[in-house]
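User: Run a structure prediction on this.
Assistant: Running it now.
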Amino acid sequence: MEDMLRPVYQEQASNLNTLGILKVDKKYNTDTLTDTFDVILLSVVRTLEKPVIIKHYQYNEKKAALHIVEEEQLNEWLLLGSNRKIVEWIYEGEILFDRNEYFEKLRNELYEFPFYGRKIKMGIEFAKLIRRYLDGKTFFENGHYLDAYNHIVHSLHHLGRLSIIERGFHPELTVWNQVKKIEPEIFKLYEELVKSEETIEKRLELLFLASEFLINTRVSIGVAHLLEIIEGRPLWSIEEIISHPEVQYYGVDINILLEYLIDKSIIKTIEMNDENTRLQECFYTIKK
């Protein structure tokens, strides 16, 4: 298969736009890392007409996929954690082509995991955690236990990922194996949720209490990035906050995170008369 793929990656390597090419081989019969393909080729390029181009190939019942990814898209995946396989591809892949040591430098950055990059990722993860936790709590209080269960599982997942990032590691596909080693207390909560013989209502009741405690211990690290931005100016409208280039990464979760911070008396609302209506517009600032 490798011989058959050689012209594919040679064509990529001959393109001056290409920064580097990795090859990831399937290790197990049911390897989800490669999406069941026998080989994945990852080619990172400076610019592309669209962020990602994917091509599939087959030869003698062997399957291969070529992923051509624009550098900006790759950086966004790494920042947001929205494509978890990409980190393992970079860690595990064999470098076939490396213009100006692009992949070597990228691997070093991932291993070092600069603190500012961690700060943004922790902020995004904490916002997702708060949304899942609060939505789940609402479902629970209204007796919708299966929906509450779904949300608390996701909130524990975000809590686990947050604890991994806090320790300076990138969350892997097998995130619960990491959590078990790094934060056994969160892993124990997850086990209690899925393995306990208590009624689902009782399990959820205990989990929401325990989760609230663990969330409270991580508020300072979870909101550090957002507060750093808001401290830069005396007052912010919601439009100004969500338009900030780095806050845009939070997506729809920013609204519920702001409400959570107001409830915790970390941010306060300043009301100002709107010139065009009888309403008062809300502005936000750090509570001193």
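The domain at 115-282 is CATH 1.20.120.330 (Four Helix Bundle (Hemerythrin (Met), subunit A)).
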